[in-house]
Amino acid sequence: MTNQSQPQKFIVPIGPQHPALKEPGHFEFGVDGEIVTSATIRLGFVHRGIEKATEDRTWVQNLYLLERICGICSNIHGTVYAIGVEKLAGVEIPPRAKYIRTIVAELERVHSHLLWLGVAAHEGGFDTLFMYSWRDRETVMDLLEGLSGNRVNYSTNLIGGVKFDINEKQADEIRRGLDFLEERTHYYMKVVTTDETFLGRTRDIGTMTREQAELLGAVGPTARASGVPRDVRSESPYLAYNEHPIQLQVHDGGDLLARFIVRLNELFDTYRLIRELLDHMPAGDLTVRVPRRIPEGEVLIRGEAPRGELVYYLKSSGSDKPDRIKVRTPSLCNWGTISHVAVGHKLADMPMLLVGIDPCFSCNDRLVTVNNTQNSQDLTWDALRRYGIEYYK
Amino acid sequence: MDTTTALETAQSLLQPWAQTVTQPEPHRSDFVVAPADLLAAVQALMDARWGYLGAITGVDLPAPAPAEGQPPAESHLAALYQFFNGAAVATLRVTVTHAQPVLPSICDIIPSATIYERELIEMFGFDIENTPVTDHLLLPDDWPQNVYPLRKSFTGFGGAESA
Amino acid sequence: MNNIFPLIALLIFPGGLFLMASGLVYEWVDRKLIARYQNRVGPRWFQPLADVVKLLAKEEIIPTGVSRGLFVALPVIGMAGALTAALYVPIAGFAPSFSFAGDLVVTLYLLSMMTLCLGLAGANTTDRFSLIGATRTLTQLFSYEAPFLLALLGPAIVAGTWNIAEINNFAGQNIWLVVTQLMGFLVALVGLLGKLEMPPFDAPEAETEIVSGALTEYSGRGLALFRLGKDVELVVGLTLVASFYLGGIANPLEFLLKTLGLLIVMAGMQSLFARLRIDQTVGLWWRIGALLALVQLLVLIVVRVLR
Question: Cross-referenced InterPro entries, in alphabetical order (chain C) (predicted)?
């Protein structure tokens, strides 16, 4: 093989632009033939400086900014932030608003898990499952659009409540949609656990023991698939999870298959939870008034995003702008597990391993970037055109 | 273990090192720890299997503008080591000066802390001793030396960003 | 006139233009079928042609560090191999243009040219994805080639000849060989999937790992030729399997029905399975594929000797 003639390591770069990655990240896998011998990760290609930017904006403006940290789990960022600000301000939102927040959070989990199922199947070269699960995901996207008017950034939250109500007609639509999705999820569960070719790509691949998961700080479904019973919704219930607890889904396998099973089981539980919430919605207002200036203080808020534990640290100095907002996204915790688990596996398993933690690059790269004006050239349109003509001559 | 007992356990574990203990929320305790005692405190929590490291948050605490005729006060950086155990949160609060922002690395005790420590180095200019990797994690490779974006003194490189 | 006939056979029918056109049509059918199986709309009928035309119009970028001659010649050689192979099989139900006693073996070698060219093309560049793709292409070649060959030998032994045209006639006059040699048929069909690097045997060009494998560095004309070559190989392979196992091909209608029927089955297999890792591919072929083909062959020989 080619690499044996070379004394130095044969490195396969994946990213920043690569068909396996839907978002930019950079991985370098040292390989010996097909076996991966080392793995390094470089992030930061989609920095937007959100943490710094929040310090320049008011508490209300930040709600919209933070919702755009992630395109897939946009809602949970807004929700956790809003809970934090409400806590700082010392207001309690009406119970109906809590229920609506919970329902949207759980619908978002449905959409995110189905999206993940498709992407993971695609990485394993199982495009039929990819197409099917994404087709069915449209159902939940439509439900969310029916509620909020948006498919992606639902913008459910206000500081002090929610923007929209769920009426009986919408509730019935959600119930119908969930019935359909539940039936489909049963089918996917069957496919994932019985299809021999697919099992060949998931069984005993990327196995992470419970000790490793705890040591490496894994969170969310990734940790739960290694037998770590860790879910903020049951550990430290917020919103309506107190009245309607979740059933924690844990699996001891630790491999990719276990991650599939945990996420699909979570879907079943989420369907049950949404139905329960819809049946027990309290009546009442949707919002309360929150002062523009938030009293001085610090809070630490945790929420369970589809990918795992999301942590917000808010520090207020008593003005209408925050002093410091720190976001700790679940993907950041799970990265560490990859470089650890990757070594010794086949190169062909890498995409599935990467996707196994359901990574979200935008979430990680939220921190800071500023145009480095010393290096960048500002070109006028004419100059750019001339440059282009010159370049291609 | 419910939240109250968890916090009480943390308090007794951290007794030797905590300078002050406050409880801003029922489920959250803050322990102010000297940089020299940080490793011992983290080790105590981990030995007792008290939760897991949730995040390390850096906070810049610039000194207020000095009053007329007074020498300027010293600016500080704080690192908050946040540990979660069920609903309970224990925060180890370590404060260092801008002039000498030196902290020990806790990666020997908690390997996954490397990502947070790299973030502290890049964003706040902490000097973390013995941390295994110091490459840029998030900032571009050509980012200028000694510019720390999350410090309050940083307001961009001028131009488009000032708006 | 004697000189013109071979030229027509080579350039227009059944080789050359006709073969390329039918290759594009079969590619479309394949893509459309998979799309429908996967609940997608799928491409329009001229999409494969449009792809090729577009590629031909594009600049061909020759990367640094490659042997330029090889880089340009390999797609042409691969294509030529596939086109030449077509001259020995009963394309569209007409008797093969050329025929001699041992043409089955020659045809199989010509069909492998394409894969060899792909492997060489990948190894020729310095790109890391190409190198791994080339390794995988050649590894896969070694795994499916022997069982595929054995599977096609079955009908040859029954017919008692190594001549494709005669096997075709024999198959047409007897009961469909798929009934008596089911194992051989399966191995041949799956072997064809492996040969064409179609899912689930597309590890050599697994886009989520190594972009597009050996062809990563190819663009423009070279890429178009490689793709056309694969389409031609698809038609030739389908014709070969259909004429051997599905009761021979005697007229254009039979050709269409039988090859398209096979394609429907193949498209189904492509959408049913997850991609196999290269080690799984090799394991599958040598543990199951080769074994099945050998057992089949043994049964045939025993039956023949007993008679």
Answer: ComplexI_Subunit1, NADH_UbQ_OxRdtase_su1/FPO
- The minimal CB distance from A1 to the residues C135, C207, C274 is found for C135
| Ordered domains of chain A (ranges, CATH) | 50-330 (1.10.645.10)
Judged by a CB distance cut-off of 8 A, whether residue A1 touches chain C is: yes
Count interface pairs A-B at CB distance under 8 A.
102
What is residue A268's predicted lDDT score, i.e. its pLDDT?
92
- Which domain does C207 fall in, by range? 4-306
Q: Residues 109 to 148 of B: which have CB under 8 A from any A CB?
A: 110-112, 114-115, 119, 123, 135-140, 142-144
Is B in contact with C (3 or more beta carbon pairs below 8 Å)?
A: no
Task: Please give the pLDDT value at position A178.
Answer: 92
Give pLDDT, residue A52.
80
A34 interaction partners in chain C (CB closer than 8 Å): 132, 278-279
Please tell me the distance in Å from A81's CA to the nearest CA on chain C. 35
Report the gap between the CA of B65 and the closest CA in chain A (Å).
Answer: 16
Where does the pLDDT of residue A387 fall: very low under 50, low under 70, confident under 90, or very high at 90 and above? low
Which among B24, B55, B123 has CB closest to A311? B55
- Residue at C273: amino acid letter: F
SS3 track for chain A: CHHHHCCCCEEEEECCCCCCCCCCCEEEEEEECCEEEEEEEECCCCCCCHHHHHCCCCHHHHHHHHHCCCCCCHHHHHHHHHHHHHHHHCCCCCHHHHHHHHHHHHHHHHHHHHHHHHHHHHHCCCHHHHHHHHHHHHHHHHHHHHHHCCCCCCCCEECCEECCCCCHHHHHHHHHHHHHHHHHHHHHHHHHHHCHHHHHHHCCCCCCCHHHHHHHCCCHHHHHCCCCCCCHHHHCCCHHHCCCCCCCCCCCCCCHHHHHHHHHHHHHHHHHHHHHHHHCCCCCCCECCCCCCCCCEEEEEEEEECCEEEEEEEEECCCCCEEEEEEECHHHHHHHHHHHHHCCCEHHHHHHHHHHCCCCHHHHCCCCCCCCCCCCCCCCHHHHHHHHHHHHC
| CB-based contact A111:A143 (threshold 8 Å) | no
State the total domains in chain C: 1
Chain A nearest C-alpha distance from B136 (Å): 8
- Which member of A49, A309, A373 has the closest CB to residue B158? A373
Task: With beta carbons under 8 A apart, name residues in chain A contacting C280.
Answer: 200
Q: What's the pLDDT tens digit per position in C102-144?
A: 888 888 888 888 888 888 888 888 878 888 888 888 888 888 8
A67 is in an annotated binding site: no
Write down the pTM of the prediction. 0.83
Q: What are B49-99's pLDDT values in tens digits?
A: 888 888 888 888 887 777 777 777 788 888 888 888 888 888 888 888 888
ipTM of the complex: 0.84
Cross-chain residue pair C276–A195, CB shorter than 8 Å: no
Domains of chain B (ranges; CATH) run: 3-63+73-154 (3.30.460.80)
Pick from A332-346, A359-373, C106-120, C252-266: least confident: A359-373
Neighbours of chain C (3+ CB pairs under 8 A): A
**pLDDT tens-place string over residues A342-368:** 777 777 777 777 776 667 665 555 543
**Number of C-alpha atoms within 13 angstroms, CB side, residue B16?**
11
Worst-scoring range by mean pLDDT, A140-144, C118-122, C156-160, C235-239?
C156-160
Mutate which of C207, C275, C281 to disrupt the A interface (most A C-beta within 10 Å)?
A: C275
Q: Which of C207, C271, C278 sits opposite A34 (nearest CB)?
A: C278
Question: Measuring CA to CA, which residue among B58, B61, B95, B65 is closest to residue B75?
Answer: B61
Residue of C202, C208, C273 lying closest to A19 (CB–CB): C208
